[in-house]
Amino acid sequence: MAHTKAQKTVKGNRDSQSKRLGMKLFGGEKAKPGYIIIRQKGTKVNAGPGTLLGRDFTIMALKEGTIKFYKKWGEAYVAVV
């Protein structure tokens, strides 16, 4: 029989910690230099003017302004205007 009773938890019964990815600021919100706008895996959204793409694909603001999302040639971009 394939039942296990009265033993410790199985080796594969663990889950990884969530990485807290996603949007941290939305379109129309105010941003200051250094504010994180998006945390992502890969470039789902590209960095536009006024933003910086970090080594781990985090997009952050380089200047003070308002966040704007737009599409260009089918690619998504975020900018600080």
Automatic annotation (TrEMBL):
GO CC annotations, alphabetized: ribonucleoprotein complex; ribosome
Pfam families: Ribosomal_L27
Alphabetic keyword roster: Ribonucleoprotein, Ribosomal protein
Biological processes annotated in GO: translation
InterPro entries per record: Ribosomal_bL27
MF terms in GO: structural constituent of ribosome
Keyword Disulfide bond appears in the UniProt entry: no
Positions of region (Disordered): 1-23
Tagged with keyword Nucleotide-binding: no
Gene3D superfamilies xref list: 2.40.50.100
Similarity section: Belongs to the bacterial ribosomal protein bL27 family.
Protein name, as recorded: Large ribosomal subunit protein bL27
